[in-house]
């Protein structure tokens, strides 16, 4: 585990900060990631009504949603979002939200392990509200969110490498976010080691 702190905002955090702040000011105080989450939940409901499985939600419970964002770079990248507004940092979570987060993390990690039939490697991190971004009493544009970034592509032995066009221009997806979410959902259930499916 690594914990990083700095006296400046890294460029990726600045982009997230500016995107969320800009949306907040252009949309009369709406929170970008909460609006996006609502769109994904509505899209999932429409898919289920029509019998389609083409939505991007991997798993969810009362307090949390795990989904493959449409802008994901890594094949099986997922985002964790709390459903309650105004959760800026991990210390804003209520005890029941921490418990439901632990349950969802266990479910998602089992999906990854089952999909690849291995203890799936990944990088994971939280994006919390930058400290200098607003006064504590102000309604804020930020929403806590986490990212899983597993490097695997098709199997435990096939890794995704960012090369060529991806390094020099922009990332290319190996499969759609909808397909990645479907594959992860289909891998849900009992952990493959406990099920005896080696």
TrEMBL record:
Single GO BP term: galactose catabolic process via UDP-galactose, Leloir pathway
Protein name (database record): GalP_UDP_tr_C domain-containing protein
Coiled-coil annotated residue ranges, if any: none
Residue ranges annotated for the Galactose-1-phosphate uridyl transferase C-terminal domain, each copy included: 19-194
One Gene Ontology term, aspect cellular component: cytoplasm
Gene3D superfamilies reported in the protein's UniProt record: HIT-like (3.30.428.10)
Single GO term (MF): UDP-glucose:hexose-1-phosphate uridylyltransferase activity
Cited SUPFAM superfamilies: HIT-like
Lineage of producing organism: Eukaryota, Metazoa, Spiralia, Lophotrochozoa, Platyhelminthes
Taxonomy, superkingdom: Eukaryota
Organism of derivation: Schistocephalus solidus
Pfam families tied to this protein: GalP_UDP_tr_C
């Amino acid at each position: 585990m690594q914990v990083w702190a700095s006296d400046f905002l890294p460029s990726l955090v600045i982009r997230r900060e500016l995107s969320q702040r800009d949306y907040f000011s252009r949309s009369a105080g709406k929170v970008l990631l909460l609006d996006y989450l609502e769109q994904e939940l509505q899209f999932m409901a429409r898919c289920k009504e029509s019998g389609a499985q083409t939505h991007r939600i991997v798993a969810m419970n009362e307090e949390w949603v795990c989904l493959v964002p449409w802008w994901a770079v890594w094949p099986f990248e997922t985002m964790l979002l709390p459903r309650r507004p105004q959760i800026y940092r991990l210390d804003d979570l209520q005890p029941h939200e921490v418990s439901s987060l632990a349950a969802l993390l266990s479910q998602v990690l089992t999906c990854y392990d089952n999909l690849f039939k291995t203890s799936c490697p990944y990088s994971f991190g939280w994006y919390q509200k930058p400290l200098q971004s607003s006064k504590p009493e102000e309604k804020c544009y930020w929403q806590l969110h986490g990212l899983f970034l597993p490097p695997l592509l098709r199997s435990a032995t096939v890794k995704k490498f960012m090369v060529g066009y991806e390094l020099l221009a922009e990332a290319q997806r190996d499969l759609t976010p909808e397909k990645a979410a479907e594959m992860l959902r289909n891998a849900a259930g009992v952990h493959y080691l406990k099920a005896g499916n080696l």
